[in-house]
Design brief:
The complex is a heterodimer of chains A (about 270) and B (about 290). Chain A is built from 13 helices and no strands. Chain A has about 270 residues and is mainly alpha-helical. In chain A, about 45% of the residues are buried. Chain B has one domain: Orthogonal Bundle (MetI-like fold), CATH 1.10.3720. Classes of the chains: A mainly alpha (about 270), B mainly alpha (about 290).
């Protein structure tokens, strides 16, 4: 007896394949010889598997330095966005003050500011601060993020008023309410929002290309771009080896926090 | 004293965000507005006041006109690929299948972990018209693949597909969540009444999901036009003859490649005005509930 198969699954599985197969080819090509990457391009399993691309890559670029730069930048940005986001959301959750609505809408509005409108002035400021070719120059203008504020605010609204009021009556200092009550309750969303911030920053390209011109200061996406233009020429397997290295950390983070991350994304849309 | 403290405290918590927003967003927007009335090259010690000339340049220069048209083409493809398709698929997953919903969510999201630089490189290889796998298969079937990088509109299509690969899962999850928050008793009632599923979706579900629908639609335009920057810069650098450039990319080209700060700033201001219109639509239809903060 065959059960009736839902034909929609065929369409959905095709979409999964179109999402995943390019990634499989990325990994596959990183273990192929240059000749095989053209000669047997449709083979997902390399005919002559080799780790030479990774070894050569390690000679051509400073892999450790690149990874460290990327890690440092993503960490600074993530911590900054989490701190400013938590403080802001906390102020909104626990206080009534003038202009609250206006400030809230101002945060919403920042999502609609194209980066091109702040690009020149921020570039000039970073260059005045002597932070060109410096990870801090990339990180500094992006230490706060409206999406984070929104998600934290939504989670904080779920904390019952009675809990915060009780703490106020007991004359527990505000600082302690924040650290001992609010933060522990928010832990899951801090972890997931932090993971999203980190992954996005890890992959960031546009602003770093303006600030980081010196190779020693490059992050991984910038180093990768070099392999499509002049220098790396057309060595596709080499570029795919770097791509594979680049995605390892985001993938690990996703595997560990996958449930939280998907939940947070859902939350960011709910109004 | 205590009372005064209470009034200042919330602003103390807001201070870090406020300083960052003022220094790196509000002042820069004002400064860009100022620059849009001057002729400058990013380096020279003096700027020449030119009035509205940069704005006239934005709308009358044939290259900029082409770029504005391209931007509309981008918006069209972004809406179709990154909004309508994920919306359709989220409806399928929500109402037409019963199993594996969680698995699809997890799998669709995986490309979001990748840098668009990786996406751009991968798809340039896959779609290479001479030596790529798809061209290879097509050749064996007796077909030839068009050289898409020579055609503005084909390059735009490819670039939009690359961003689609990355953001599909993200938008899918947002839209699916919206559908999930619609009360099930409404859906059940319609089922009992024997209303066909597609009519139920069209007449009931889509209107009820309007808030998040508009939110994702607008985000698709605003963020999409900025996401495509990476594949444009990696693959075509705006070519052929600005055929795949959009207003965002052209703003960058003017500032950091052509050193025409004035044109760049005017383009940025025009883009911002368009985005502000979208913001007002968003506030009108989506942030309605935000009134709770008044």
């Amino acid at each position: 007896m065959f059960k009736k198969i839902n034909l929609w699954h065929i369409l959905l599985i095709l979409i999964v394949l179109s999402a995943i197969v390019p990634i499989l080819f990325m990994v596959s090509n990183s273990f192929k010889t240059l000749r095989d990457s053209y000669g047997t391009m449709l083979n997902l399993i390399p005919t002559h598997p080799t780790i030479k691309n990774y070894l050569l890559l390690n000679k051509q670029v400073n892999l450790l330095g690149l990874t460290w730069n990327t890690f440092l930048m993503a960490t600074i940005v993530t911590i900054g966005k989490l701190l400013t986001g938590l403080l802001t959301a906390y102020a909104f959750r626990t206080y009534q003050f003038k202009g609250k609505m206006f400030i809230y809408l101002l945060f919403v509005a920042t999502i609609f500011v194209p980066f091109t409108i702040v690009m020149i002035p921020n570039y000039l400021v970073i260059s005045k601060l002597n932070l060109l070719n410096n990870i801090w120059g990339v990180a500094l203008p992006q230490l706060c993020d409206a999406t984070g504020i929104m998600i934290f605010l939504k989670t904080m609204e779920k904390i019952p008023n009675t809990l915060i009021d009780a703490a106020k009556i007991d004359d527990i200092p505000k600082r302690k309410i924040f650290f001992n009550i609010v933060i522990p309750i928010l832990k899951p969303s801090i972890v997931s929002v932090g993971a999203i911030f980190f992954i996005n920053s890890w992959n960031e390209y546009v602003w770093p290309t303006l600030i980081l011109k010196d190779k020693a200061s490059f992050t991984l996406p910038l180093a990768l771009q070099n392999y499509i233009s002049s220098e790396g020429g057309t060595n596709f397997p080499l570029a795919m080896a770097l791509s594979t290295i680049m995605v390892i950390l985001p993938l690990i983070i996703y595997l560990i926090f996958q449930k939280y991350i998907l939940n947070s994304i859902s939350n960011s849309g709910l109004k | 004293m205590h009372n005064k403290n209470k009034k200042i405290l919330p602003f103390l918590y807001l201070l870090p965000t406020a300083i960052l927003l003022i220094v790196f967003m509000i002042i820069p927007i004002i400064y860009t507005f100022y620059l849009s009335f001057f002729d400058w090259n990013l380096i020279a010690p003096t700027k020449e006041f030119v009035g509205l000339r940069n704005y006239i340049e934005v709308f009358t220069n044939p290259v900029n006109q082409k770029v504005i048209l391209n931007t509309l083409i981008y918006i069209f493809f972004l809406i179709v690929l990154n909004f309508l398709v994920p919306y359709f698929i989220s409806l399928i997953v929500k109402f037409f299948i019963k199993k594996m919903q969680g698995a699809y969510k997890v799998l669709f999201f995986i490309p979001s972990l990748f840098s668009l630089v990786v996406g751009a490189m991968l798809f340039t290889w896959i779609l290479n018209p001479v030596s790529g796998p798809i061209a290879y298969v097509m050749k064996n079937l007796g077909m030839t693949m068009p050289n898409w990088s020579n055609s503005g509109i084909l390059a735009i299509t490819v670039i939009c597909f690359i961003t689609n690969w990355k953001v599909f899962g993200y938008n899918f999850i947002l839209l699916l969540t919206g559908l999930g928050s619609i009360p099930t008793n409404i859906i059940d009632a319609a089922k009992i009444d024997g209303i066909p599923k597609w009519r139920l979706i069209w007449n009931v579900i889509l209107p009820m999901n309007r808030g998040i629908g508009i939110y994702v639609l607008i985000l698709t335009i605003v963020q999409g036009l900025q996401y495509v920057f990476t594949p444009i810069n990696v693959i075509t650098t705006g070519g052929p003859y600005y055929g795949s450039s959009n207003m965002i990319y052209q703003t960058y080209l003017n500032a950091f490649v052509l050193y025409k700060t004035g044109t760049s700033s005017a383009l940025a201001i025009v883009t911002f005005v368009v985005f502000l219109v979208l913001l007002f639509i968003e506030i009108r239809f989506v942030e309605g509930k935000a009134k709770k903060y008044v």
